[in-house]
Amino acid sequence: MMKIWKNNQRNIALIITAAGSSTRFGNNIKKEYLPIVENDFSKGTVLGRSLETFLETGYFSTIVITIPENQQKEAEKALSYLPLGKSLLNNEIASVKFSFCTGGNTRQSSVFEGLKCIAELSKYNIPDAVLIHDGARPFVSKKIVDSVIEDLEKSGASVPGVPAVDTQKQVDENGKIVAHLQRSTIFAVQTPQAFQFEKLLEAHGKALTDGRVYTDDTEIWGQYCGDVYISYGETTNKKITYKEDLITGSRQ
Fold it and tell me: Do strands 12-17 and 129-134 pair parallel, antiparallel, or not at all (unpaired)?
């Protein structure tokens, strides 16, 4: 096991990414700001629910939410529908430093901005670890959060995942199958993804200028830091992608 925690006390930060354009959703309002409906009753917004589980744990000393430029009012409104979100906005959770952060044009650049924001907010008490979660993934459970934090000690990085159900094929640009992948070795990864904070911040700085495009933070960690372990995931921890996703599923 790796030594992650200083003085045997966990100091963990959280980034929730909500700076994307939601182009696949087909709506003028960002999907993170829309309500989730269960049994004909609104259960808060996508962004509010994405944050709620993490606040309920009480694990996090610093929380940053990345948003598009000039959308803080919309983000605040999305968080205010649930009591814990309202408390966070009103600075009523004394143990948590909180800020919105303007994201970049890509997920990679948004996460880097979030990491720098955390470093500034916590410059006198830098976090040991950071969890990075999609703002459009509102059904995350405490069991997933607990699992990625525990598995973080294996290598300094962990990510929830679920085994592939369907047989997987690799195809070329023309749609021709070029490789038959073994389903037993394929996992669909989710968030939150957990990392040692300072190592990930340094790796993002290197990735900024290496000319590569990274789709998630496990790729950056794998390129510059080391191995990432798959942790416990759930099929219910889905990402809101289409309108019908707003009225299906419930948090466990």
Answer: parallel
Express each pLDDT in 102-141 by its tens digit: 999 999 999 999 999 999 999 889 999 999 999 999 999 9
**Structural contact between residues 249 and 241, judged by C-beta atoms closer than 8 angstroms:** no
Question: DSSP secondary-structure letter at 21?
Answer: -
Q: Which residues contact 106 (CB under 8 A, 6 or more apart)?
A: 213
Distance (Å, rounded) from C-alpha 10 to C-alpha 148? 13
Structural domain of 222:
6-243
Which DSSP symbol is given to 53?
H
Residue 176 class from Cβ within 10 Å (0-12 exposed, 13-18 middle, 19+ buried)?
A: exposed
Q: How many CB atoms lie within 10 A of CB 145?
A: 24
Listed in sequence order, the residues at least 6 apart from 215 whose beta carbon sits closer than 8 Å to its beta carbon are 107, 108
Residue 159 DSSP SS3: strand
- What's the CA gap between 86 and 77, in Å, rounded? 9
On the question of a cis peptide bond just before residue 192, with omega within 30 degrees of 0, the verdict is: yes
Is 250 domain-assigned? no
Q: How many domains does the chain have?
A: 1
Query: Residue 248 domain-assigned?
Result: no
User: In the chain, which residues have pLDDT < 50?
Assistant: 40, 249-252
Q: Is residue 206 part of a domain?
A: yes
Any idea what the CATH number is for the domain that residue 65 is in? 3.90.550.10
Answer yes or no: is 123 within a domain: yes
